[in-house]
Amino acid sequence: MAPSGADRTAERLALLPGIRRAPTPKLQQFMLAGFLDPATCAGLMAQIDRDVRPSTIADPNGDEAFRTSTTCDLDHRDPLVRAVNARLHDITGIPLDHGEPLQGQRYDVGQEFKAHTDYFDPHGADWETYCAVPGQRTWTLMVYLNQPAAGGATRFLATGKMHQPETGKLVAWNNVRADGQPNADTLHHGMKVRKGRKYIITKWFRERAWPWADGELV
């Protein structure tokens, strides 16, 4: 099985013009303003508005207000989605079959995603369901599609870094440490939108190839 290349992603991202790396040893994290142009962002937002559903979490924790956003499973056959997805894979150097389908999320006023990590808990109830074949989530790439009038920042608790939504801005981070173990310092909070509406897209990458990709990624 071909390796994912995720261990070299940080080196690749660091070479992108204009990218900034978070000055912390706690996690590998990068920010790049203007990664997507406004027209592309607008097209993705229209698709999200058309196909949203309530967001879910892998291991329910009893808090019904833990994640209150809505989610859109973007159509990976759509030309715009395909182009954005290919670009995300290109900058990471991770093969297409190691990526989850691209998702969009929408946050209305008062909605949030409380402090969480993107990796799966190896001891969680749904580990076998989500990770038996593709393995752990390695990198997360998130792009803000707009800038709400107030609120909606993403806060990383271990570093105190607050990422403010800006149209087209990319935020990328590695969910695992060099030894392959989950990095708890990636704990982050999608904070409440206070005014307006927030849109993002999220791309997650896996250790191994996804079965869903067979016959789909052409």
CATH fourth-tier homologous superfamily? q2cbj1_9rhob like domain
Q: How is the main sheet built?
A: 8 strands, antiparallel
Counted up, domains total: 1
β-sheet strand percentage: 25-35%
CATH architecture term: Sandwich
* pLDDT < 50 stretches: none
Radius of gyration: 16 Å
What are the salient characteristics of this protein?
218 residues; alpha+beta; Jelly Rolls; eight-stranded antiparallel sheet; 14 strands; 18% helix
List the helices and strands and how they pair.
Elements: H1 9-14, E1 20-21, E2 29-32, H2 38-51, E3 53-54, E4 70-73, H3 79-92, E5 103-107, E6 113-116, H4 127-131, E7 137-144, E8 150-151, E9 154-156, E10 161-163, E11 170-174, E12 188-190, E13 193-195, E14 198-206
Antiparallel strand pairs: 1-2, 2-11, 3-4, 4-5, 5-14, 6-12, 7-11, 7-14, 8-13, 9-10, 9-12
Organism: Sphingopyxis terrae subsp. ummariensis
Cofactor: L-ascorbate
GO molecular function: iron ion binding; L-ascorbic acid binding; procollagen-proline 4-dioxygenase activity
Folded structure, characterized:
The chain is of the alpha+beta class and 218 residues long. It has a single domain, classed as Sandwich (Jelly Rolls), CATH 2.60.120.620. It contains 4 helices and 14 strands. The strands form 3 sheets. It has an 8-stranded antiparallel β-sheet with strand order 1-2-11-7-14-5-4-3. The protein has a 4-stranded antiparallel β-sheet with strand order 6-12-9-10, with no helix packed on it. A two-stranded antiparallel ribbon has the order 8-13. Strand 1 and strand 2 form a beta hairpin. The radius of gyration is 16 Å and the shape is globular. The relative contact order is 0.24. The mean pLDDT is 93. Keywords: Dioxygenase, Iron, Metal-binding, Oxidoreductase, Vitamin C. One of its GO terms (molecular function) is L-ascorbic acid binding. Pfam families: 2OG-FeII_Oxy_3. InterPro entries: Oxoglu/Fe-dep_dioxygenase_dom, P4HA-like, Pro_4_hyd_alph, Pro_4_hyd_alph_FE2OG_OXY.
